[in-house]
Design goal:
By secondary structure, the chain is mainly β. It is built from one helix and six strands, in the order E-E-H-E-E-E-E. Strands 1, 2, 3, 4, 5 and 6 form a six-stranded antiparallel β-sheet that branches.
Length: 89
């Protein structure tokens, strides 16, 4: 499924975002693209990475309310979420 800028989504609880949440798909701020630069671009709402045995598509989501990630060093107002854990609201 393709998500578009502004789509309202539900984040299903999973390893990286254990509490789940809701938010809006958005284009990440420039400083995010600069901070994670690894040859991949993140100038749209999503980027695709090569995992160990598969391709992983990450979507940038601005959360409706800040949420904690697995490292418990949040709460975060936005972040990358694997597309497989998103549902359109």
């Amino acid at each position: 499924m393709k998500f578009n800028d502004g789509d309202h989504v539900k984040i299903l609880p999973h390893l990286w975002w254990p509490e789940g949440g809701t938010g809006r798909v958005s284009i990440p701020p420039d400083f995010i693209s600069e901070a994670i630069y690894s040859g991949d671009t993140f100038d749209t709402t999503q980027r695709t990475l090569i995992g160990n045995n598969r391709l992983i598509t990450e979507i940038w989501v601005s959360f409706d309310t800040p949420i904690m990630d697995i490292s418990d060093d949040g709460p975060y107002v936005a972040g990358e979420v694997s597309m497989e854990y998103l549902e359109l609201l």
